[in-house]
Design a protein that fits this description.
globular; single chain; alpha/beta; 7-stranded mixed beta sheet; 18 strands
């Protein structure tokens, strides 16, 4: 039996939903988390079978370590431990073993880049020093508040002069391809930026793709690309324990099928079993935007403009194809550095990846795909029996192409690519498990078309355009209803920011200053979406 009435219901128990629940419960609210699956965690889940631990969705968490939101929760007190490989990241350029590596010590990374082209090592150190100088105010501006006025002011002060502020703004707006050309003379530095940029879906010749590559490359240098020791469910488990310690009630195996609205305000939620829970203050939906507006809310209540935006302008990010391997031994990479890396990028030079990015945006399944590869046993030896290797690899289909046949075709090309860069790989395969986009979506309904980011990370669907034209916050046109998933700013990644921002907005709207904070934004939002 569910409670008949609570202060707040959180729909979904991904990291954003759990952060929302913690934030509200810490403030003294009576919080109920309803999860459709039998297991908490959303897309942060792992499974164990016979000594093999497989991360089913996300796996490496640089943003999880760096996020001010998650750091403040002190999840290490709830059993979370991070595992690091000897090298955070290696990017494979050629089949002969040529590669670029990010080492734990930035001086070693610089020495590696400088060995290719004199001057590129110093360029890397300068780039990293600039990142360190702005790291704290930048991460706070990106992840802790919206609009980021106070941390934005601190960031501007850290940069100093107006000229430096404008140069930084230009730098953040640059396409990855241009950024690599300006920073480095060789192939290795741009390749590191390009591979990291392809963790997201912004075209590498398009605006802000440089920011994606730069931020992840700098995080790899700063905190590494760690995994949660024991599997990604260990991260979710720590969040669940923290939420329960705060007083939240979590119930799994309970899909929410509808959100009730009365006089323009959220009033309750309905479950698949027919139960109704009345809501006194707020509902936070850790769901995709299409699920919230097309499935959970009464159709007649959704503004016509919002419907049009979702139907005609909303874009998912690239569909994902993921392969999971149990191997009898380590991968025999021709690159010596790759043999000790936690994450391997396989895809060639930055120029090669620009062409691949164009394929993905023009409907062509790449003949030579870019692979993100996680050698999880390198980061956490307990992931597989002694002497073996647990490995995953994922790649992307073109935007909107998510059928099983295309996924099978891409998976075959992925395996052949690994074999080219690691001759003998195929002979090591004990078991192979393919997760097509359809399987990813069936495993987590928020991953529409197998997309992992909650919607495209391109500029036209960021900030005040995320998930559609609006004000950039978690508010919806229904009072007391908030979207708290990666569908809102700042988007994809395991950082907890979206859930944190949704909960902060709900708390502010329910406070004594609520009539001031919510009335004008809500009215403006309804006007924009009508």
């Amino acid at each position: 039996m569910l409670p008949r009435s609570v202060d707040a219901v959180v729909i979904g128990s991904g990291p954003n939903g759990l952060v929302s629940a913690i934030t509200l419960a810490d403030a003294g609210w009576d919080v109920l988390v309803l999860e459709a699956a039998e297991t908490f965690g959303g897309a942060v889940r792992s499974v164990e079978e016979g000594g093999w631990i497989s991360d089913r969705f996300s796996s490496n968490y640089p943003l999880g370590v760096a996020s001010p939101v998650l750091r403040a929760l002190e999840l290490e007190k709830f059993g979370l431990k991070w595992g690091h490989a000897p090298l955070p990241l290696v990017h494979l350029l050629d089949e002969d073993g040529t590669s670029a590596a990010i080492h734990p010590d930035p001086e070693d990374t610089a020495k590696s880049l400088g060995a290719e082209v004199p001057g590129d090592g110093e360029a890397w150190l300068q780039l990293y020093q600039q990142y360190v100088a702005v790291r704290e105010p930048m991460l706070k501006a990106l992840l802790t508040t919206w609009p980021p006025i106070v941390p934005g002011i601190k960031l501007a002060r850290k940069l100093g002069s107006l000229g430096e502020l404008l140069r930084f703004a230009r730098f953040m707006a640059m396409p990855m391809h241009r950024m690599g050309q300006e920073l480095f003379d060789g192939r290795h530095g741009p390749a590191l930026l390009a591979g990291n940029a392809l963790h997201a879906d912004a075209p590498l010749s398009g605006a802000v793709s440089g920011t994606m590559g730069w931020l992840l490359a700098m995080l790899a240098q700063d905190v590494g690309f760690p995994v949660a020791v024991g599997g990604s469910s260990a991260l979710s488990g720590a969040l669940v324990q923290r939420a329960e310690r705060a007083g939240a009630l979590l119930v799994s195996g309970t899909p929410v099928t509808g959100i009730d609205v009365s006089a323009g305000r959220v009033s309750g939620v309905r479950t698949a079993s027919g139960e109704t829970v009345a809501v006194e203050r707020a509902v936070i939906a850790d769901t995709s935007a299409p699920m919230l507006y097309r499935s959970l809310l009464p159709e007649a209540s959704v503004p016509a403009g919002l419907k049009r935006d979702l139907d005609e302008r909303y874009e998912w990010d690239y569909p994902t194809v993921k392969l999971n391997f149990r191997l009898s031994g380590p991968v025999p990479w021709t690159s010596v550095e790759a043999r000790s890396a936690g994450v391997v990028h396989l895809g060639g030079t930055a120029n090669d990846l620009v062409h691949l990015s164009a394929d993905l945006d023009t409907g062509r399944v790449p003949s030579q795909p870019f692979l993100l590869i996680g050698q999880t046993t390198k980061s956490d030896p307990g992931r597989s029996p002694a002497g073996t290797e647990m490995l995953w690899a994922y790649s992307h289909l073109p935007r909107g192409v998510a059928d099983d046949a295309s996924a099978e075709k891409l998976a075959g090309r992925m395996e052949r690519a690994i074999e080219r860069f690691a001759p003998g790989f195929t002979d090591l395969v004990i078991a192979r498990d393919l997760q097509r986009p359809s399987a990813l979506e069936s495993g987590n309904a928020s991953l529409g078309l197998g997309a992992l980011g909650g919607g495209t990370m391109q500029l036209q669907q960021q900030l005040i355009f995320r998930p559609t034209i609006g004000l950039g916050s978690a508010r919806t046109y229904v009072d007391g209803l908030y979207l708290g998933s990666s569908a809102i700013h700042p988007g994809g990644g395991v950082h907890g920011a979206c859930g944190h921002l949704a909960a902060r907005t709900a708390l502010r709207d329910a406070s004594i200053i609520g009539p001031i904070t919510r009335t004008l934004p809500a009215a403006a939002l309804r006007r924009l979406q009508r």
